[in-house]
Amino acid sequence: MPTPMDIDVNMWAGRMKGLMPLKLCSIVPGEQPPYPSCVGH
């Protein structure tokens, strides 16, 4: 049976912090980046 991988909690906590706050926005037809309907909120 393979040995479980060690998880570097500090590394992953830092990466997750860099993603926060994560926001999902609706697609607006014809809108181009930087997607003002999403970025402005």
Quick take:
The chain is mainly α. The protein has two helices and no strands.
Computed CA radius of gyration, to the nearest angstrom: 18 Å
Q: Report the structural category.
A: mainly alpha
The share of residues in extended strands comes to: under 5%
- Major sheet size, sense and barrel closure: none
- Mean pLDDT metric: 87
How many individual β-strands?
0
Morphology call = elongated
Output the helix-strand order.
HH
Structure, described:
The chain is mainly alpha-helical and 41 residues long. The protein has helices at residues 9-19, 36-39. The longest helix has 11 residues, at 9-19. The radius of gyration is 18 Å and the shape is elongated. 0% of the residues are buried. The model has no long low-confidence stretch (mean pLDDT 87).
